[in-house]
């Protein structure tokens, strides 16, 4: 069975995947309105509501109702500047966004997590992602989709040397470890948003690639 989301809330619309997802949402005639808070202004569109500022400050001022929420937030330790700053975005801000989305009426939350997310991991990045997933599961959403993409491929606005060097190898890795294009991930997220599957669902990268073809 499929649902058609009408009013969408999205965080991270200026990021690699978020910008592709936003374009797709605005091209969908069934989407009535997209609420996309962002730090810098987005291109104007008649069905786009774009509050501008820091997300943490904007969250209390966002108005609903919304049907479905997408969280495309994410940073790196290098970009954030420290482990604490990384956690503030990839854990604290994600959870705050989810809580606000639920308060605005959203019944389905889709979150970009990461391959290897594990709250017990000895790897800091994976552990934070796993702790975020666990906290989201504890929010008891009517429908929660946790997407675990492998390395995201695509042209970023900021230069990431490690990703640039690893990208060619990631394209030939097997199964869920193979890199995934941000455009493919965006298509997969939209397809998942249309599915009515109550409860929580974790979607690994190989399934995301299949859904986004």
From TrEMBL:
It is found in: Membrane. Keywords: Membrane. Transmembrane segments: none annotated. GO terms for cellular component: membrane. It holds the Pfam family Epimerase. The keyword Membrane applies. Residues 7-108 form the Semialdehyde dehydrogenase NAD-binding domain. GO terms for molecular function: NAD binding; oxidoreductase activity, acting on the aldehyde or oxo group of donors, NAD or NADP as acceptor. This is Uncharacterized conserved protein YbjT, contains NAD(P)-binding and DUF2867 domains. It comes from Pseudomonas kuykendallii.
């Amino acid at each position: 069975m499929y649902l058609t989301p009408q009013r969408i809330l999205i965080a991270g619309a200026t990021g690699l995947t978020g910008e592709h997802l936003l374009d797709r949402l605005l091209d969908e005639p069934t989407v009535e309105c997209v609420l996309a808070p962002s730090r810098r202004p987005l291109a104007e569109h008649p069905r786009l509501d774009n509050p501008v500022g820091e997300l943490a400050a904007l969250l209390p001022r966002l108005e609903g109702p919304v049907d479905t929420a997408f969280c495309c937030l994410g940073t790196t330790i290098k970009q954030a500047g420290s482990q604490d700053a990384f956690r503030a975005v990839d854990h604290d801000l994600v959870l705050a966004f989810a809580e606000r989305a639920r308060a605005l009426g959203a019944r389905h939350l889709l979150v970009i997590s990461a391959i290897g997310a594990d709250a017990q991991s000895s790897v800091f990045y994976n552990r934070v992602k796993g702790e975020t997933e666990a906290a989201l599961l504890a929010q008891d959403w009517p429908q929660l989709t946790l997407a675990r993409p492998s390395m995201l491929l695509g042209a970023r606005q900021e230069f990431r040397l490690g990703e640039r060097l690893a990208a060619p190898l990631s394209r030939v890795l097997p199964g869920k470890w193979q890199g995934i294009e941000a455009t493919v991930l965006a298509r997969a997220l939209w397809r998942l948003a249309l599915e009515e599957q109550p409860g929580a669902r974790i979607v690994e990268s190989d399934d995301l690639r299949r859904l986004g073809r």
